[in-house]
Design goal:
Layout: H1 8-23, H2 44-48, H3 58-68, H4 71-75, E1 81-82, E2 93-94, H5 125-129, H6 134-153, H7 185-200, E3 216-219, E4 226-227, E5 230-231, E6 236-237, H8 241-257, E7 263-266, E8 270-271, E9 274-275, H9 281-290, E10 296-299, H10 303-309, H11 317-327, H12 336-346, H13 352-368, H14 392-405, E11 407-411, E12 425-429, H15 453-458, E13 462-466, H16 480-489, E14 492-498, H17 519-529, E15 534-539, H18 547-550, E16 555-560, H19 568-576, H20 618-621, E17 639-645, E18 649-652, E19 669-671, E20 681-690, E21 696-705, H21 708-711, E22 720-729, E23 734-742, H22 743-746, E24 749-750, E25 756-759, E26 761-767, E27 770-778
The protein binds 2-acetamido-2-deoxy-beta-D-glucopyranose (2 copies).
One 2-acetamido-2-deoxy-beta-D-glucopyranose is lined by residues 133, 135-136, 139, 400, 404, 697, 726-728.
Protein name: Fibronectin type III-like domain-containing protein
Keywords: Glycoprotein, Glycosidase, Hydrolase, Secreted, Signal
Pfam families: Fn3-like (PF14310), Glyco_hydro_3 (PF00933), Glyco_hydro_3_C (PF01915)
């Protein structure tokens, strides 16, 4: 790798991070009402163009426009910085904007300043995922797209947002794990579909126009940034057909088919030797063909340049362009396609018709966004403006999301909640105790404002503040003594520790799961000295091995706040003092540090080896020791489950006519493509009783295990989440929760060839401590 130039994208990321850290709220550009992007009603010519006829079908308009473009013009529309076509009255457009958990200025399409000094900054996605509340995920998407449209109208934002990131959190070291909804494919897929629906607007809203266009990324098997000398620009992910079908593809399929996302981004890495952005099997056949993407496929930033320049996958830039376009890429983040496309066509490596195909996809999305409908202010969403950004309701939702996502990991005693009457002075210690931007994680924007943990707790009680460590690296003990003294003198001690972007970030994977530097030592020493109960609050995206604190009787309680967003300090304080009863659950496994020794980050396999020398990944396949399991999360109350109703037998009707044959009993499996899957679901009714004295929210998690005899030969998941539902239950009350389990999607297992099959026989459902068996039987077949 020596001698290889750093890809432009890496340099761009570094520049952006630099900008982010120095720009904080400085207005760089004055906002103003946006001029029409195209089809300006004041423009004589525009009225005559069929592509400007807002009432015509979009594909027809797109075809008309493509038919008017020259090859040179077409080439310049293939990059994120799409050029203007002045002779057709079309302005330039910057495609690259981001809105992972709030409108972000990572990406040149969006800026803060003027009338738009900031936007609502929601918790980082891993925290929001921990709420297990799909309505919350959609509600956040709605707020973010209100603010995005407002900024677009004001000339400060784009309409195409390259969010969410729905790669599986496969490895706990991944620096971008924080951006994802965790390790479970179904949770990630449900998050994707919900957030995308929120962003893009419900069907029928906005006169059939998209509110903004979302993008599910990075397709696929991308979850390594820079580990042990291997980086994402050079990594070849070797993925089995089985893992591809039952892990990596699941969220993307759900995003496209259920979320109806308008874009998918391919990744930097190769999968089985082919760069994802050059793989027709992944892009054309799967995303556009099998899943029917209605939208565009975009590259990760400069990834075509990367597979030519860094991976040497093609010998010329022109061949790289042709491979990408033919594979199904429609838009390049970067200048590579704009630069080399004409030569590739002239050299006969591809046809102009191939480019037309790409442009039909991108232009259609711009048309569905209303960009060719003339005056923005006269359109759906046209009245959104500065008054719709950082509204009290939006900021309240950011606070609510943090309250719903924070996870109570330990509560011995119980030490929590604290009480302002008994805990009149609380020592607040730690490098994350008074932070602002740490709370929003990466891919953030400029927040409307922040409440730090210190400020949040200060609203409940008197605080004694000590940093303890100068920063999260915590390389010395200079500040320990002050912290210890504070703990000695206070009625309770809250340590706010953990990570930030200096430890886990894009292009920075961890090599340890322990707390950095001497943080652990500080926690133990402070806990030893503390007069009152000691509470550990952790900020981190990925899991941290805090076994020492879990096992330390002096650390009475532990909260995981993830990166809780702009209002994180209020949410943490509300939970510590019991104004909010925590209900979040971990969306990923917390492994012990020694897990890393047997698991190279580069090994993609989800399943353990037979010898268990390689123990497998995520709760679905890994059965070894954990610090905290997937789904763990405590409450200040106590919930009891009782099964109200669930079928004990489900008949699976088969499609078509087949010979009567004894092969469909237990021990056999029916191919999903041979079953009549529509509406084939299994309804479970469960009563959740709140047996404690506080109101609270509880998430029902339904796991299934396939029959031993049916599925074992394919090494199916140990168990698999097949449904979840968050429910609010008042103290002493009981609520009924209904969960529908889709038989073909959820109870099928994937064989070694990547084929989904439904094993017949006893499937075991587990909901907390309730266990229920359902027998699946193929319908008796007709003799032919
Ligand atoms: C059932 O079908 C299998 C192959 O699908 C065949 O090998 C077997 O002989 C059949 N059994 C009977 C009873 O027809
Ligand atoms: C889920 O989130 C929505 C939006 O914040 C909220 O109204 C609802 O109460 C939440 N549900 C539960 C059970 O917490």
């Amino acid at each position: 790798m020596t001698g290889t130039a750093l890809p432009a994208a890496a340099a761009a990321t570094a520049t952006l991070l630099l900008l982010l850290s120095i720009s904080g709220g400085i207005g760089r550009l004055a906002a103003g009402a946006r001029e029409p992007f195209a089809c300006d009603p004041k423009d004589e010519r525009a009225r005559g163009f069929p592509f400007c006829q807002a009432s015509s079908p979009v594909p027809e308009r797109a075809r008309d426009l493509v038919g008017r473009l020259t090859l040179q013009e077409k080439a310049k529309l293939l990059g994120n910085d799409a050029a203007a076509v002045p002779r057709l009255g079309i302005k330039g457009y910057e495609w690259w904007s981001e809105a992972l958990h709030g409108v972000s200025n990572v990406g040149p399409g969006t800026r803060f300043g003027g009338d738009f000094p900031g936007a609502t900054s929601f918790p980082q996605v891993i925290t929001t995922a921990a709420s297990f509340n799909a309505s919350l995920w959609e509600a956040i998407g709605q707020v973010v797209s209100d603010e995005a449209r407002a900024m677009y109208n004001g000339g400060m934002g784009g309409l195409t947002y390259w969010s969410p990131n729905i790669n599986i959190l496969r490895d706990p070291r991944w620096g971008r794990g924080q951006e994802t909804p965790g390790e479970d494919p179904v949770v990630v897929g449900q998050y994707a579909a919900s957030y995308v629906r929120g962003l893009q607007g419900a069907e029928g809203d906005g006169g059939g126009r998209l509110k903004v266009a979302a993008c599910c990324k990075h397709f696929t098997a991308y979850d390594l940034d820079n580990w042990n000398g291997i980086d994402r620009y050079h990594f070849n992910a070797r993925v089995s057909k089985q893992d591809m079908e039952d892990t990596f593809s699941v969220p993307f399929r759900m995003c496209v088919m259920e979320g109806k996302v308008a874009s998918v981004m391919c990744s930097y890495n190769q999968v089985n030797g082919i760069p994802t952005c050059a793989d027709p099997n992944l892009l054309r056949k799967t995303v556009r063909g099998a899943w029917r993407l209605d939208g565009y496929v975009v590259s990760d930033c400069d990834s075509v340049g990367v597979f030519y320049g860094n991976q040497h996958y093609t010998s010329t830039p022109q061949q790289a362009v042709a491979d990408a376009i033919k594979a199904g890429l429609d838009l390049d983040c970067g200048p590579f396609l704009a630069k080399h496309t004409e030569e590739a066509v002239r050299g006969g490596l591809m046809n102009e018709a191939d480019i037309d195909g790409a442009l039909l996809n991108t232009l259609a999305v711009q048309m569905r966004l209303g960009m060719f409908d003339g005056e923005p202010s006269a359109q759906a969403y046209g009245t959104l403006g500065p008054k719709d950004v950082c509204t009290p309701a939006h900021q309240e939702l950011a606070l609510e999301a943090a309250r719903q996502g924070i996870v109570l990991l330990k509560n011995q005693g119980p030490a929590l909640p604290l009480s302002p009457r008994r805990h009149r002075a609380v020592a607040i210690i730690g490098p994350n105790s008074d932070v602002t931007v740490t709370m929003v994680g990466n891919y953030a924007g400029v927040a409307c404002g922040y409440t730090t943990p210190l400020q949040g707790i200060g609203k409940y009680t008197k605080t004694i503040h000590q940093q303890g460590c100068a920063d999260v690296a915590c390389s010395d003990d200079k500040l320990f003594e002050g912290a210890i003294q504070a703990a000695r003198g206070a009625d309770a001690t809250v340590l706010v520790m953990g990570l930030d972007q200096s430890i886990e970030a894009e292009f920075k994977d961890r090599d340890s799961l322990l707390l950095p530097g001497r943080q652990q030592e500080l926690v133990s020493k402070v806990a030893m000295a503390s007069k009152g109960p000691t509470v550990l609050v952790l900020m981190s995206g990925g899991p941290v091995d805090i076994s020492f604190a879990k096992n330390d009787l002096r650390v009475a309680a532990i909260l995981w706040a993830g990166y809780p967003g702009q209002a994180g300090g209020t949410a943490i304080a509300d939970i510590l003092f019991g104004a909010t009863n925590p209900g979040g659950k971990l969306p990923m496994t917390w492994y012990p540090q020694d897990y890393l020794a047997s698991v190279p980050m580069t090994v993609m396999d989800m399943r353990p080896t037979r010898s268990n020398l390689y123990p497998g990944r995520t709760y679905r396949f890994y059965g070894g020791p954990v610090v905290y399991p997937f789904g763990h999360g405590l409450s200040y109350t106590h919930f009891v489950h009782t099964l109200a109703s669930a079928p004990s037998t489900v008949v699976v009707p088969l499609a078509g006519r087949r010979p009567a044959n004894a092969t469909m009993g237990p021990g056999k499996a029916v191919r999903v493509t041979h079953a009549r899957c529509a509406r084939l679901s299994l309804g479970v009714q469960l009563d959740v009783q709140n047996a404690g004295a506080r109101d609270g929210a509880h998430t029902v998690l339904v796991f299934s295990t396939p029959p031993k005899d049916g599925g074992a030969r394919w090494a199916p998941p140990r168990s698999q989440l097949v449904g979840f539902q968050r429910v609010h239950v008042a103290a002493g009350a009981r609520e009924r929760v209904g969960i529908n389990i889709h038989v073909c999607k959820s109870l099928s297992v994937v064989d070694g060839a990547g084929v989904r099959r439904i094993p017949m026989g006893e499937h075991r459902l587990q909901i907390g401590d309730v266990v229920h068996s359902v027998s699946l039987q193929a319908e008796p077949l007709r003799v032919i």
